[in-house]
Design brief:
It is built from seven helices and five strands, in the order αααβααββααββ. It is an alpha+beta fold. The chain folds into two domains: 72 residues; 134 residues, Heat Shock Protein 90, CATH 3.30.565.10. A five-stranded mixed β-sheet has the order 1-2-3-5-4. The structure holds adenosine-5'-triphosphate and magnesium ion (MG). Adenosine-5'-triphosphate (ATP) binds next to helix 5 and helix 7.
Length: 230
């Protein structure tokens, strides 16, 4: 893990209190994490406890039952591991350590594998400016925007192909996620979920803008633009 340098030390006075919308989104995320922990890890641990209790009872009896129960216990441990990794990934994706371009490339490849939808990533031609190279907050924010946009395309777009482009020049950084799906009317979509709102909010927290272009029957393009300090 990278340690924050002393030059970037943040005192509590520097942190603005969250506004009502931010607080609401935080509570929704915390509730989801709590639900995941309860439903998945909780159920797996309960199952594991029951298997161990039965194992003790059966120790005197037949080997076949004990073998089957041991295998089941191993399955539960492996599922609990998967749940743990998924909660960790939601809290703070380990792939952030790769740095921005590689984290986004990894996400596109993982999406490709998991969804079966073609997703092409074009890396930037220019290196990330040094000021942004080690900015984990930037990487995690853009990764979450990308994940939400990819999920939206998967769930709502009936798309065949997605393109993700990361452009960097001396003035700005631009992340574009485009699908070739059925589109929608952005003026009537707000309020249907919290994904679009939280993408916009993340872009603003980075000091940038999120632009959403879509019409029913046309492609959908999500573009985040951030100014880059020299
Ligand atoms: N790429 C897309 N193609 C077609 N429709 C989309 C696309 N992205 C968003 N939409 C429409 O915009 C609505 C709002 O999206 P938003 O991400 O805010 O919510 P959601 O995906 O429905 O739920 P949540 O993200 O909270 O799980 C969606 O319900 C869908 O109708
Ligand atoms: Mg969504």
């Amino acid at each position: 893990m990278k340690q924050p340098s002393a030059a970037h030390h943040i005192s509590p006075d520097d942190i603005a209190p969250p506004n009502a919308l931010e607080q609401r989104i935080r509570e929704i995320e915390r509730a989801r994490i709590a639900r995941d922990l309860h439903d998945e890890l909780g159920a797996q641990l309960t199952g594991l406890g029951m298997v161990l209790a039965q194992l003790r009872e059966n120790l005197e009896k037949d080997r076949v039952t004990i073998l089957a129960q041991t295998e089941y216990a191993q399955q539960l441990i492996s599922q609990a591991h998967d749940s743990l990794h998924s909660v960790i990934d939601d809290l703070y994706p380990p792939v952030v350590e790769f740095g921005l371009p590689d984290a986004l490339a990894w996400q596109c490849a993982a999406f490709n594998r998991q969804s079966g939808l073609a997703c092409t990533f074009s890396p930037p031609l220019q290196h990330l400016p040094q000021s942004l190279g080690s900015d984990d907050f930037l990487t995690v924010s853009l990764l979450r925007i990308l994940r939400e946009a990819l999920n939206n395309s998967l769930r709502h777009a009936v798309a065949r192909h997605l393109r993700v482009d990361l452009l960097i020049d001396d003035q700005q950084l631009q992340l574009t996620i485009a699908d070739d799906g059925q589109g929608f009317d952005p003026t009537t979509a707000s309020g249907q979920g919290h994904g679009l709102r939280s993408m916009r909010q993340r872009a603003h927290l980075l000091g940038g803008q999120l632009q959403l272009d879509s019409v029913p029957g046309g492609p959908t393009v999500v573009r985040v633009t951030l100014p880059v300090a020299p």
